[in-house]
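agent> step 3/5: call structure_predict on target 'AarF/ABC1/UbiB kinase family protein' (Paraconexibacter antarcticus).
agent> reason: downstream docking stage needs a structural representation; sequence fetched in step 2, passing through unchanged.
tool.input:
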Amino acid sequence: MSDEEIRGSRFRRAASITGTAAGVAAREATARAMVRTAGSSDARRAAASRQQLKSAQALVKVFAGMRGAAMKVGQTLSAVDLGMVPEEIRPEFQAILAQLQQGADPVSFKAITKVIESDLGEKLRESFADIDPEPIAAASIGQVHRATLHDGRDVAVKVQYPGIAEAIHADMQNLRLGLKLLSAIAPGIDTGAIAGEIRERITEELDYELEASNQQAMARVYRGHPFAVVPGVVTDLCRERVIVTDYVEAMRFAEFKDTSSQAERDRAAEIIVRFYLNGPMRHRLLNGDPHPGNTLFLPDGRIAFLDFGFFKRMGDDEVRHLVKTTRALHENDPMGLLEIVAELGALPADPALAQPFYENYEAIFGWLLDEEPTRIDASQTAQMMRRYTAMRGDEGFDQMTLPAEHFVLMRGVMLVIGLLGQLQAEGRWFDVAREWLLGDDPRTGLGKAEAAFFGTRHEYTTGVAA
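tool.output (status=ok):
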């Protein structure tokens, strides 16, 4: 990119999105017509598949170019399978979207230097003994450079793109236009809900001081943990647009997925479930952004977790509500589940809603309660998305308002399933969940190691004995 700041013109960006969306819509209409044609030949189906792959390439180009808000959508799409395309081209389709896991094109180091010096109030050489001008990662709202502090400590410096806040505010106006791309490929997806979620969270993600505080809280919890790593934060060098953390030398998700054994992938999957799902029930810190770019694999078998912008600090009552709803699912109690969510104001206490809500809740959380070894299929996320979207359109569910912890956890669960599906991981998942759900002792080696580490520091105070 040039040294100019990222432009935030709503009209320029809207024109680009609208033009691309129109092209995608035309290709998708052609592809669907080819597939519907009576007696469609193999050649026609292959042509339709090529059209859909071109749509995926356009999706990546526009979402990466928008950065910020729209790129968050793209990263989610790269992590989960929404059943957008035929099974035979799904791996290639996901591979195209996976480009978004590595982030966007970087901004020039000159522009990044201006941001760092402006925020820290001193010259770059005063803050760092050395900093690599080539970024090691470029994400949705910022990029990361490796650096060395004057005391010799290796660090990662995450810097917001210059002008990104203005660009994101423009994107907020354009987001529905951008989501036309998604609607064209996946009719029926609730793009309104996606847009609402992004609007609610993006302001928090622009505040790197808040993110640094979130990460520091997690780093304290996991300092010295046997298999999960959260890089420490250099608080003196964190500002609204700059975060400095410990540098982690590790393998990226795609390489680990392609080079590891089944046993290694299964072990990694349990660690991911323990960090993103079991963890919040113990220490009340819920990270809602588990996509592949935030997961790094160390040579010693530990996994490092990054990015704490999409975050929620949970209260005891919120944890107890999550335990109650999951126990109602475990006990096959649709009315009990409805009564709990009705008490929270999420749904009216109408018995007619009990069974359909139960079935949809089970579609999202039921795999956690499977007592038999089960291999996660990434296509489960497609089924979840379709069911959830269909339910929102049914009578009685159109005004459903899930509490924040349920919504963030539901999003997190879907993204975790996406990760486990890409790993083709197999596990007895209830052996992990039963620790916080039923108060049982750990049954796996990782569970026993984690219990020994936490000791009395972070018990599962979830009210499971009630």
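agent> step 4/5: record observation. The chain has two domains: 10-102+173-204, 249-466.
agent> proceeding.
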